[in-house]
């Protein structure tokens, strides 16, 4: 009986004093002040939640600041009745068609013109539900602001894991307000806005060696614009290169080889996924440029194929070394603290720079407009990669420079700000009301509801949401109304007033002037 009773205490474990009691008895035997502090489940859960909140604080702050900056800039443009081109009107008309579940017929480009015959951008259809709820051209500017802010937040989160919170916020803001994105915002909306977050998500996954995520985020780029098919090809090749450097060709155990699992093992490896992505890019570039665009374009061709003439560009020194190209390259180097070329990610710059610099269209060469927006994620992620790689450099001077690189990149971004479009947000004169704003609004109101309109670019963006709008430079059917801006709309001055324009474009159709103030003129049948 006594022997059985002694077994009620747990046996001593290695390290316990001989015969020391355990369990509740042990707890009672240890003085209160010496008990180990073990957090309970609730405390651990709170700690995890708090850590997650801290991890997201920097990206959320950057998102909020970047989003607010671009929305304010868009609001400033909108209030000033700024019209950079006809593109915002074109994409607004496109989304109005998608929102109504109709083919993308955009009359601004021409009567019956299918916009998928101009550029291949079917991914824009995902914005149709947003436009259906908020049917305005201004909605597209807000969407673009959200795209840029999301990309900056994703980059910030990646930077925080490598450089700490404060540095990541500074670099995230340098990304969000980089020259390429600011010039894109100044040009108002373009389809390339969707590529900025997709490319950032894909490249951050490349840095993290998450090959599947990198390919899944990169694959939809082929549906943003046709030239990005080549960018996707290069992205696939970069994944192959880095995966091969990481582990070479994946080996297959003999048992898997006999069972036929070897192909699946390769396809799901980094090299296999990269190869699949590269093939995907080739297929869609060919389909877009040789099948879809020629089939839907009124001219039966890829409308921009003639803009590429590498032979003439390469043999003309003045074009090959145009200063505008040098300015673009200089900005790439400056905003990456000169480190962009130390990362394989920089290879992704080649497709975009090639089609731009080998084009005879000088508008593609400079850093302005929206053509450099896709360069920013590549350049800044390459900087992040170069910083990581440089820490293990065999050169002491490189390791020292790497430590200063974030500060150099941020300083360069700040120095560039006064010459960039968003600097107008801190200039008091930029917020002065437009002296023609009241007349512009009155001209818009003068157009009858539902009337079809031929317009120059002056008020096009403000009419396109609730009118069938045609651009004044095309061969159009006779509309219900004509709207021109003789000050900044682009109608040739020698055409005369709105009545003369009507007689010139639509002889035999009688138009009567119903509004004329501050250069805005409206005439209707």
In words, what does this structure look like?
It is a single chain. This protein is mainly alpha-helical and 525 residues long. 54% of the residues lie in helices and 4% in strands. It contains 23 helices and 5 strands. The protein has a 5-stranded mixed beta sheet with strand order 2-1-3-5-4, with helices on both faces. The longest helix has 39 residues. 41% of the residues are buried.
Overall morphology: globular
Summarize the amount of helix as a percent range.
Answer: 40-55%
Major sheet description: 5 strands, mixed
- Quick one: how many beta strands? 5
* Radius of gyration over all CA atoms, rounded: 30 Å
Helix-strand sequence: HHHHHHHHHHHHHHHHHHHHHEHEEHEE
Please work out how many helical segments DSSP would assign.
Answer: 23
**Numbering strands along the chain, what is their spatial order in the largest sheet?**
2-1-3-5-4
Q: What's the mean pLDDT score?
A: 89
In terms of per-residue confidence, which ranges show pLDDT below 50 for 5 or more consecutive residues? 1-30
Distance between the termini: 115 Å
- Structural class, by secondary structure, is mainly alpha
Strand proportion, as a percent range, falls in under 5%
């Amino acid at each position: 009986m006594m022997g059985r009773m002694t077994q009620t205490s747990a046996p001593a474990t290695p390290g316990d004093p001989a015969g020391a009691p355990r369990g509740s008895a042990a707890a009672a035997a240890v003085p209160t002040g010496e008990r180990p502090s073990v957090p309970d489940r609730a405390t651990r859960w709170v700690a995890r939640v708090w850590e997650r909140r801290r991890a997201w604080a920097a990206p959320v702050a950057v998102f909020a600041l970047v989003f607010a900056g671009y929305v304010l800039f868009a609001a400033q443009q909108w209030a000033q009745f700024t019209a950079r081109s006809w593109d915002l009107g074109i994409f607004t008309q496109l989304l109005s068609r998608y929102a109504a579940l109709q083919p993308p017929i955009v009359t601004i480009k021409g009567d019956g013109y299918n916009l998928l015959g101009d550029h291949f951008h079917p991914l824009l259809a995902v914005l149709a539900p947003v436009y259906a709820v908020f049917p305005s051209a201004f909605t597209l500017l807000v969407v673009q602001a959200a795209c840029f802010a999301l990309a900056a937040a994703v980059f910030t989160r990646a930077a925080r894991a490598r450089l700490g919170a404060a540095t990541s916020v500074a670099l995230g803001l340098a990304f969000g307000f980089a020259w390429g994105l600011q010039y894109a915002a100044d040009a108002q909306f373009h389809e390339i806005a969707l590529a900025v977050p997709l490319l950032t998500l894909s490249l951050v996954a490349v840095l993290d060696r998450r090959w599947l995520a990198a390919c899944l985020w990169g694959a939809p780029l082929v549906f943003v614009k046709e030239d990005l098919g080549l960018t996707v090809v290069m992205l696939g090749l970069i994944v192959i290169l880095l995966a091969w450097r990481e582990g070479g060709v994946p080996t297959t155990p003999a048992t898997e080889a006999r069972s036929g699992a070897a192909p699946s093992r390769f396809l799901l490896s980094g090299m296999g996924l990269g190869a699949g992505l590269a093939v995907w890019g080739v297929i869609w570039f060919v389909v877009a440029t040789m099948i879809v665009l020629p089939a839907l374009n009124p001219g039966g061709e890829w409308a921009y194929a003639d803009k590429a003439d590498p032979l003439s560009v390469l043999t003309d020194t003045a074009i090959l070394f145009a200063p505008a190209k040098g300015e673009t390259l200089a900005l790439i180097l400056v905003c990456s603290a000169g480190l962009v070329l130390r990362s394989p990610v920089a290879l992704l710059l080649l497709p975009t720079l090639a089609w731009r610099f080998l084009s005879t269209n000088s508008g593609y060469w400079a850093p302005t407009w929206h053509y450099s927006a896709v360069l920013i994620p590549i350049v800044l992620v390459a900087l992040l990669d170069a910083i990581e790689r440089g820490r293990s450099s065999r050169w002491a001077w490189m390791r020292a420079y790497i430590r200063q690189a974030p500060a150099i990149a941020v300083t360069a971004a700040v120095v560039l700000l006064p010459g960039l479009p968003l600097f107008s947000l801190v200039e008091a004169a930029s917020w002065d009301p437009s002296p023609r704003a009241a007349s512009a609004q009155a001209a818009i109101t003068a157009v009858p509801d539902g009337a079809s309109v031929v317009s120059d670019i002056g008020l096009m963006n403000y009419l396109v949401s609730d009118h069938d709008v045609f651009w004044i430079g095309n061969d159009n059917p006779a509309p219900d109304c004509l709207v021109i801006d003789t000050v900044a709309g682009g109608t040739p001055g020698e055409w005369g007033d709105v009545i003369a324009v009507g007689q010139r474009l639509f002889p035999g159709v009688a138009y009567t002037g119903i509004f004329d103030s501050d250069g805005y003129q409206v005439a209707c049948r």
